[in-house]
Specification:
Layout lengths: L2 E5 L6 H12 L2 E4 H11 L2 H12 L5 H12 L8 E4 L5 H13 L6 E6 L2 H14 L7 H23 L4 E5 L4 H12 L1
Helix pairs in contact: 1-8, 2-3, 4-5
Bound molecules: adenosine monophosphate (AMP).
Length: 187
């Protein structure tokens, strides 16, 4: 059964690939960014706590995120496999995730890292800014998100890289090419 984490900088195309793969393989796509944006839109307690943090491009505290994922992955639709898109984002989150799964005698099947060059990333983020109307996608917040990624999430790639479930997918090509590469790597 496929239980995946998708890693990579903001703008690498994780969300797009996650949607495609979830559809093709019947997996549940869990985007923590989408979950948090829904909470903000619905004005829940969680939404109120995270709104300012998200608007600034910072990370929501680990304990909140771990609790959110623990609840979400316990739901019935995750029993036939899932893709975590945007979680974990820190080494502490990754450790909590692996502990959470091993308590249930479970483990991730692959750790998928979508890699892109800095130039390519800049271009994609500019495009996304033009196409989507995300409040956290103005230039300053995008740069902050990238800084936070480099500082807090990139070390996670090194943490996972030694693992034999780690798969790196060069993600600078077209959506279709990247998807082909992804499905081949998961076979
Ligand atoms: P995303 O759509 O994945 O780029 O997430 C949007 C925002 O939600 C991020 O900039 C963070 O503020 C927050 N967020 C999403 N996932 C996480 C996570 N795993 N840990 C901390 N903050 C998160």
């Amino acid at each position: 059964m496929l239980k995946l984490v998708f890693l990579g900088p903001p703008g690498a195309g994780k969300g797009t690939q996650a949607k495609l793969l979830a559809q093709e393989k019947g997996l549940t796509h869990i985007s923590t960014g989408d979950m948090l944006r829904s909470a903000v839109a619905a004005g829940t307690e969680l939404g109120k706590r995270v709104q300012g943090i998200m608007d600034e491009g910072k990370l929501v505290p680990d304990d909140l995120m771990v609790e959110l994922i623990e609840e979400r992955t316990a739901q019935a639709d995750c029993s036939s496999g899932f893709i975590l898109d945007g979680f974990p984002r820190t080494v502490a989150q990754a450790e909590a995730l692996s502990e959470m799964l091993s308590k249930k005698n479970d483990r991730l099947s692959h750790l998928v890292y979508f890699s892109v060059t800095d130039d390519d990333l800049k271009e994609r983020l500019e495009k996304r800014r033009a196409e989507e109307n995300r409040k956290d996608d103005n230039v300053d917040v995008q740069l902050e998100r990238l800084r936070v990624y480099r500082e807090q999430t990139a070390p996670l790639i090194d943490f996972y890289r030694e693992d034999d479930r780690f798969v790196e997918i060069p993600a600078q090509d077209s959506i279709n090419d990247v998807f082909q590469r992804l499905t081949t790597a998961l076979q």
